[in-house]
């Protein structure tokens, strides 16, 4: 019974994935390009950086980088707390 | 793991890797790369140095390097630079850009240009802080794993 249920769920999920892959937009035709065009046109003058990726990561979407830094901090704190030896300072 | 090959290779490669990481961090607003990637490169160079030494030597050397303090300085400095945007604007606003601040404050020449290092506003500062944070964090993780390996070998 459980096995049949698992098989049914597997087939259903596979069909869902195939349907999702069939309905993807063709490569090279994004839905909205206004934001991309804005970044490409204005990033150099507004953030005064030649590298548009850095200006997006640290300026326009700084909160993403803040979350990423938080994730790294949490990972390091967890590893240090779980694995450190007694009496050793890192 | 400390064979002659690893020791000799590390002597030549470590300096190059650390210099390349510093270059990636400092030129993050001009060329591909940035704080996170440069910090990872520096951490890989430090991992090479860790692997090429004995455990006691490593502990002696890293006793004077405050890795957790460096990580905290990176995180708090990143937040502090982001808070600079509250001077009349919003959080994460690039206030130093195009303002004529002596370091990294010059306006960018428009159009395609070869890259002028003294631009970018707060972006280079954030790159430096994030690079410090990432190199300290990854190096401390690698160091703890290495010390754990030493413990397993002793038992």
Automatic annotation (TrEMBL), chain A:
Keywords: Membrane, Transmembrane, Transmembrane helix. The chain crosses the membrane at residues 65-83. The keyword Transmembrane helix applies. Pfam families: MbhE. Residues 19-85 form the MrpA C-terminal/MbhE domain. The keyword Transmembrane helix applies. This is MrpA C-terminal/MbhE domain-containing protein.
From TrEMBL, chain B:
It is found in: Cell membrane. Keywords: Cell membrane, Membrane, Transmembrane, Transmembrane helix. GO terms for cellular component: plasma membrane. The chain crosses the membrane at residues 12-30, 36-53, 73-92, 125-149. It comes from the Archaea. Residues 5-139 form the Na+/H+ antiporter MnhB subunit-related protein domain. It is a multi-pass membrane protein. This is Sodium:proton antiporter. The lineage of its organism: Archaea, Methanobacteriati, Methanobacteriota, Thermococci, Thermococcales.
């Amino acid at each position: 019974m459980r096995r049949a249920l698992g098989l049914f769920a597997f087939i259903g999920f596979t069909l869902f994935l195939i349907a999702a892959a069939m309905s993807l937009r063709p490569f090279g035709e994004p839905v909205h390009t206004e934001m991309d065009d804005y970044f490409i046109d204005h990033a150099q003058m507004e953030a005064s950086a030649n590298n548009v990726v850095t200006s997006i990561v640290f300026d326009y979407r700084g909160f993403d980088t803040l979350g990423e830094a938080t994730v790294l901090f949490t990972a390091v704190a967890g590893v240090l707390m779980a694995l450190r030896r007694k009496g050793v300072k890192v | 793991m400390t064979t002659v090959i690893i020791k000799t290779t590390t002597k030549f490669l470590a300096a190059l890797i650390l210099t390349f990481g510093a270059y990636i961090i400092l030129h993050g607003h001009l060329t591909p790369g940035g704080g996170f990637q440069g910090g990872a490169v520096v951490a890989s160079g430090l991992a090479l140095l860790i692997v090429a030494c004995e455990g006691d030597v490593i502990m002696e050397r890293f006793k004077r390097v405050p890795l957790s303090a460096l990580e905290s300085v990176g995180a708090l400095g990143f937040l502090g630079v982001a808070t600079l945007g509250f001077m009349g604007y919003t959080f994460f606003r690039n206030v130093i850009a195009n303002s004529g601040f002596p370091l990294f404050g010059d306006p960018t020449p428009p159009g395609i240009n070869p890259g002028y290092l003294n631009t970018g506003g707060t972006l280079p500062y954030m790159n430096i802080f994030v690079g410090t944070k990432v190199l300290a964090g990854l190096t401390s993780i690698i160091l703890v794993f290495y010390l754990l390996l030493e413990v397993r070998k002793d038992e």
